[in-house]
Amino acid sequence: MMEFSASRSASPDRAIPPRGEPLSDGEVGFLWWFIQGGIMDSEVRAHLHRGWGLCPRHSFAFLAVNAAFCHHYLHGPAVLYADLMTRARDAFALSGPLHETRLQHRLRESGPCHICNQGLGPASAGFASPEHLVIGRNTDNILGFLRETQPFWMPALCGRCSGTAAAPRCRPHLVEELAEGTLRDLARQRALVENITRHLLNYEQSFRWEFNGTDTLEDRGALVGAVGWCSGWEALLHVISDQAVTH
Ligand SMILES: [Zn+2]
Ligand SMILES: [Zn+2]
Question: Which of 28, 84, 155, 156 has the greatest CB tally within 10 Å of its CB?
Answer without folding.
Answer: 28
